[in-house]
Amino acid sequence: MTSQAFVEKLNEQLGHEFGAHQQYVAIAAFYDAQTMPRMAALFYDQASEERDHAMMMVQYLLDAGETPRIPALPAPVGEFGDVVEPVRAALEQEKVTEQVNELTRIARADGDFASEQFMQWFIREQVEEVATMGDLLAVVTRAKDDVDRIEDWVAREDTGESADPTAPRIAGA
User: Fold this and answer.
1) Which CATH number fits the domain that encloses residue 137?
2) How far apart are CA 63 and CA 31, in angstroms?
3) Count of domains in the chain?
4) pTM (2 decimals)?
5) Does residue 169 lie in a domain region?
6) Tell me: the pLDDT tens digits for 143-169?
7) Using H for helix, E for strand and C for coil, what is the string for 12-48?
8) Per DSSP, which regions of the chain are E strands?
9) Are residues 16 and 122 in contact, defined by beta-carbon separation less than 8 angstroms?
10) Per-residue burial over 22-50, b = 16 or more CB atoms within 10 Å of its CB, e = otherwise
């Protein structure tokens, strides 16, 4: 039986994931308008990843016999003062480690081992996302006056990662 406290908190987390999706689309559009196609592509990909995270949570709730509740979201920030500001915002967006840990704590405290196991993938993913955005912020800050250097770095770092076979199922996929 899924912990009801976990279900409530996971439904709340859906809002954070969908909010991150929208914020990353806004950041990608900003970089597109700045004629920075690699940065735009990076953030369009990040937006898709955040949507997928939300849809993994939707699928988990459905599999657990629960009804996902999709919350209304505030509008994302779409205007930025320079090329550094969106990455700084993205890094802050990625610092949801406490939210992920809280979900895991609730599952563990309630003896909901399936939900605790589900959250393990998100814990690992969070470490990677914060590290990636931290590195990107360092590069963008250093090269803020040379967007070609930023674009070149993003191109070099694009590893074309394949799908993670350990990732939870995505609803609708």
Assistant:
1) 1.20.1260.10
2) 38
3) 1
4) 0.92
5) no
6) 999 999 999 999 998 766 677 888 999
7) HHHHHHHHHHHHHHHHHHHHHHCCCHHHHHHHHHHHH
8) none
9) no
10) bbbbbbbbbbeeeebebbbbbbbebbebb
